[in-house]
Amino acid sequence: MLSEINACIILPTYNNAGTLENVLERIMAVDPGARIIVVNDGSTDKTDQILNKFTGTVQVINNEVNRGKGFSLVRGFRAAIESGFENAITIDSDRQHYPEDIPLMVEKAKENSGAVVMGSRNMNQQGVPGKSSFGNKFSNFWFKLETWITLPDTQTGFRIYPLLPMRKMKFFTKKFEFEIEVIVRLAWKGVKFIPVPIRVKYYNENRVSHFRPARDFFRISVLNSILVLGALFYYYPKKLFSRNTLVLIRQEAIKPTESNLKKSVSLAFGCFMGIVPIWGFQLLVGIPLALLFRMNKVLFLVAANISIPPMIPFIVYASLLMGQQFIDGQIDHSAILSFSLADIENNVKQYFVGACILAMAAFIVVFLTSYVLLMLFRKEPAAD
Questions:
Q1: Total domain count for the chain?
Q2: How far apart are CA 374 and CA 377, in angstroms?
Q3: Are 180 and 103 in contact (CB under 8 A)?
Q4: Residue 148 neighbours by CB under 8 Å, 6+ apart
Q5: In whole angstroms, what is the distance from residue 269 CA to residue 63 CA?
Q6: What is the pLDDT of residue 339?
Q7: Shared domain check, 181 and 38
Q8: What is the pLDDT of residues 303-352, one digit of tens each?
Q9: What are phi and psi of 118, to 5 degrees?
Q10: DSSP, residue by residue, 80-102
């Protein structure tokens, strides 16, 4: 079964002697020919004795001292890559996961080659510890912020990783936070994510959890702060200016079948929304209206950027001049530049009125200018 996706199983373990043997036996029952790599992370219990029972059937990698789950997973990934595997299934050794769900995961991996398959637990079921449920919601939120991908369970340890995109990756975290770093960075590489509902059971007996809320939440919070900065300064700009995105933008902007009238209206409406005095809400209002009236979204956004920071002082000043002319019938530059409370209040009125007039004037000027130019230099497409 695992051979269908050329996968092995990586099982990191630390002082889980009470559950490890049961997990290994159940994995072998699901797929007797499965290649299993156990990374013993410096266990001090009877883990060695249990692993000796599986000599010849399980590959064991030993950390001399406890180094952390992330460190152990990376060692497992490297061993899998060196052995020529294309995928690696990770599963926890504390018996919360059902190895019997491996076929569900493999089936999804077959249908979605190269994707990360995430076993998604039902965190609302009875018996799920409150700290686990909270931690999962916490992690899901940050993952969405860092990748703009929605997943129901980003803390699951039951996953299928494609190994090809991980061959040259170097990781910086060693503990539990590694499982966040790896999926965020794979998402930044454009790897697809597929969630699969799986079963989960939290046993009170024999289950050992090494997650320490205060310490590990601190590490995870620091990591998420770094990843958010990475998303803002690397991932989102890269995604915005990727070749595929630029091609889509160019296609949307040109649209050979779109009429000159629609292009002109889109440009004019963008200028209007960029000037109209609803600062902070211009795009929030303008984009839905552009979609509603099926305008050219790229041309609208380009024109709306008339209100970029370097232009704002000129727009505000022009708005004040127009407002003053409309309200007072004359222009007084000294009054516009006044800083008395009474004059500031009066200038606000002038600005608001003037900005509305300026926005309408910009709409008319941009529409007429762009329409005339398009009619002169662009052939009107044939009507459908």
A1: 2
A2: 5
A3: no
A4: none
A5: 64
A6: 44
A7: yes
A8: 988 887 778 888 888 888 888 888 776 666 555 555 444 555 667 888 88
A9: -110, 115
A10: HHHTT-SEEEE--SSS-B-GGGH
**Average pLDDT of the residues of the chain:** 87
Q: What is the pLDDT of residues 138-195, one digit of tens each?
A: 889 899 989 989 999 999 999 999 999 999 999 999 998 999 999 999 999 999 999 9
Q: What span, in angstroms and rounded, lies between the C-alpha atoms of 302 and 299?
A: 5
- Whichever domain contains 218, its CATH number is 3.90.550.10
Q: Are residues 278 and 232 in the same domain?
A: no
One-letter amino acid of 25: E
Here the tokens at position 33 are 């020919």
Q: Which residue has the higher pLDDT, 242 or 275?
A: 275
The encoded tokens of residue 265 equal 């209206």
What string of DSSP letters covers 277-334?
S-TT-HHHHHHHHHHHTT--HHHHHHHHGGGSGGGHHHHHHHHHHHHHHHHHSS--HH
DSSP structural state of residue 2 = G
368, amino acid identity: L
244: in domain: no
Residue 213 tokens, joined: 């809320």
Helices marked H in the chain:
17-30, 47-52, 69-82, 102-111, 130-147, 178-188, 213-230, 236-240, 243-254, 260-275, 282-292, 297-304, 312-328, 333-336, 341-377
Amino acid of residue 348: V
Do you know the residue count of the chain? Answer: 384
Contact 2, 106 (CB under 8 A): yes
- Same domain (yes/no): 212, 267: no
In a domain, residue 247? The reply is: no
Residue 290 within a domain: yes
C-beta separation of 253 from 285 below 8 A? no
Answer whether residue 233 is part of any domain. Answer: yes
**Final residue of a domain: which of 213, 239, 265?**
239
* Residue pair 19/43 in contact by the 8 Å Cβ criterion: no
Query: Do 214 and 362 fall into the same domain?
Result: no
Same domain, 198 and 277: no
Could you list the residue range(s) of the whole structural domain that residue 282 is in? 255-377
Single-letter amino acid, residue 201: K
Average confidence (pLDDT) over 254-259:
88
Cα torsion angle, 193, 194, 195, 199, sign: negative
